[in-house]
Amino acid sequence: MENKFSNIEKSNCHIHLTGALPPEKLRRLAVASEIDLGFGEPLESHLDFDDPVLWAAAKEITSTRVGLSMAIDQVVQAERQAGVKHIELTLNTFGMMRRGLEVDDIIDCLETSAAKASEDGVRLLYKFGINRKDGPQSIDRVVD
Question: What's the pTM value of the predicted model, to 2 decimals?
Answer without folding.
Answer: 0.82
